Amino acid sequence: LDDFADGAPGLSEEDCIYTEHWKTGCRKTLEERLGLPVSWQTQYLVEDSEVYRYTVEDNVKSDGYPGLNTMYCIHEVTFRVRDPEHASLNVIGLPQGQEFA
Question: Rounded distance, CA 73 to CA 90, Å?
């Protein structure tokens, strides 16, 4: 189990019919929470795969179910803006760095 928690190759990802692939989850989250359509994401964002990180937090007390411990599988993903000066990026507060969400 220690190798699994360290993100050992071959042990860090499992097919499960109850979950979606992490890349699908990223796109969906950006669309649902920030209102950025997948077409917009594809045009203006690029995933920085060099800083991707996968971690597991096991035996964590659940906030939603008192008395039940759970495991969290966490994908940390970084996206870079292709052209921060592009006029279409004002929807995310660029280039001025204004609050947008």
Answer: 33
Write out pLDDT tens, residues 10-49: 444 555 666 788 999 999 999 999 999 999 999 999 999 9
Tokens of 47: 């995933």
Round to whole Å and give the CA distance between 4 and 15: 15
Task: Please state whether beta strands 45-47 and 53-61 pair in parallel, antiparallel, or not at all (unpaired).
Answer: unpaired
Tally the residues of the chain. 101
Kindly report whether the global pTM for this prediction surpasses the value 0.90: no
Nearest CA among 35, 38, 49, 98 for reference residue 78: 49
Q: Is there a contact between 56 and 4 (Cβ–Cβ < 8 Å)?
A: yes
- Which stretch of DSSP H or E encloses residue 3? helix 2-5
Q: In the predicted model, is pLDDT for residue 97 greater than 60?
A: yes
